[in-house]
Amino acid sequence: MHALLPKDQETIVALATARGSGAIALIRLSGTDSLEVANRIAQLSSQLILSEQPSHTIHHGFAVDHHGTKLDEVLFLLMKAPKTFTGQDTVEISCHNNQFIIDAIIQAAIVAGARQATAGEFTMRGFLTGKFDLTQAEAINEIIHAPSEKALQCSLAQLKGSLSQCFEGIEVQLVELLSLCEASFEFLEEEQRDLDFNLMVHARIADILSKIQTTKKHFNMQQQIKDGVRISLIGSVNAGKSSLFNALLGKERAIVTNVAGTTRDSIEANLYKEGYYWLLIDTAGLRQAGDSIEQRGIEKSYEEAIKADVMLLVVDASRPTTTEELDVYQRMAQEYAAKIIVIFNKSDLACHPQVATIFSGLPMLYVSAAENIGMADVEQAIAQKITSLFDLQQTSFVLTQRQFNLMSEIEKKLLYIEKSLTSQVHYELVSYELKDLLEKVCELTGKRVSEEILDTVFSKFCVGK
Ligand SMILES: Nc1nc2c(ncn2[C@@H]2O[C@H](COP(=O)(O)OP(=O)(O)O)[C@@H](O)[C@H]2O)c(=O)[nH]1
Ligand SMILES: [Mg+2]
For ligand 1, what atom is nearest to the CA of residue 235? Predict the structure, then answer.
């Protein structure tokens, strides 16, 4: 547990709910003197004194200023330490959501001895009093700002300690490695020592590294959850990509014409479906110049294919496929099999299904974007691809940029140690590096963490949290 500085004992006050319209607002008071401060601004209907009431009870009454003027009819939620979010005595005032009332109550609390809380100060206190560790505190912020259901689930799991467990696992492995290192140094015979030690350290470092690398992959996945899963529509000009894009969006967003090359550059649109943000990208497509496909169009399509998480390869089913198109499709199918969904569009017209053979094994759908036929199947196929994409990663926590950077530093150091393990091992040096590494791991969970880091972590919170 960290030491509570005098400033962390002070009674702080802040609005915990968002400003703006709504029926009720919640003002929070926490700190050593919060009960006394609350007594000064509370006039209970029961005529009783708030602080003398049992913990975790609710009391009806009025919030008053130092003249005894009633500011609002409110409910006081009395929560005595230690069973509170901050681990300190806490009073929450639920008042009417009017900015003048809110400001007047906060002002009254300040006159009564509280001070305005800084960003994240309530959560920082919970951390300082040992209510949760730093990864859990960070999860609280992620919960508040969760951009999707999936991200929310991850943050909730993290709050229960999934990320802390992962970091602790790494810590335990490092400690084991360190003790092995020191034991070998003392007990093994000289010739035996270098050989055994090298093998052992290599194996263990490889193990920790793979854990770190998996966790880092999670981070990249999570950025996707936040920013949107990239779903690209790729295919020849006039295949109906823009029509499909619009049909999926449910509005005339991209311009659809039968003049080849209407969509000159990519168009992007966000939509929220099945717990994820979808970032739909309508590309210009494989342009026909004279009799052949323009090279630039092919290149651009490949560039987009690399970036895409899910690729909708739109094929015009109403006409035979050209040999050039076949080449492109074949290459796409080989290189990006995992992310392709083949869409045979214009299936309301005559169908030329011979092209289907090169896509065997890939998901294929026969649709008509213009007639709005099969759109639900397309959505379902996309959702399935996303699920398989994310299930692969088994994400159960959300990494912040801070944690990701620390992970990268740890990884770099481990790789360095691994490289420095030559036949002539300098045990002291390896021990030294390992100890240094352990310090970094402690920064992850916040077991040993500087004031400065705490300030950066909690400044990302809102005031009142
Ligand atoms: N019959 C039919 N025509 C379609 C279908 N989808 C698109 N089209 C037409 O094909 C032409 C090209 O469509 P567009 O969406 O601009 O293709 P893009 O170049 O791939 O973006 C337009 O005239 C559309 O009306 C479809 O499912 N059936
Ligand atoms: Mg288009």
Answer: 20
Ligand 1 atom closest to the Cα of residue 282 is 21
Q: Do 41 and 95 fall within a single domain?
A: yes
Q: Whose CA is nearest to atom 28 of ligand 1?
A: 346
> For ligand 1, is residue 246 a contact (CB within 6 Å)?
no
CA atoms within 13 A on the CB side of 295: 0
For residues 345 and 325, give the distance between their C-alpha atoms in angstroms, rounded to a whole number: 15
Distance CA 84, CA 115 (A): 19
> 263: Cβ below 6 Å to ligand 1?
yes
User: What is the average pLDDT across 377-387?
Assistant: 91
Instruction: Tell me how far the alpha carbon of residue 313 lies from the centroid of ligand 1, in angstroms.
Output: 14
Global pTM? Answer: 0.57
Using one digit for the tens of pLDDT, what is the confidence trace for 130-171? 888 888 888 888 777 776 676 777 777 777 777 777 888 888
Which ligand 1 atom is nearest residue 233's CA? 20
61: domain CATH number is 3.30.1360.120
Spatial separation of the C-alpha atoms in residues 279 and 303, rounded to whole Å? 16
- Picking from 103, 132, 161, the residue at the C-terminal end of a domain is 132
Torsion of CA 37, 41, 42, 43, to 10 degrees: 140
For residue 158, the enclosing domain spans 152-224+400-446
Any idea what the CATH number is for the domain that residue 342 is in? 3.40.50.300
Measured at the alpha carbon of residue 464, what is the angle toward residues 463 and 465, in degrees to the nearest 5? 95
* pLDDT per residue as tens digits for the range 6-46: 888 999 999 999 888 889 999 999 999 999 999 999 999 99
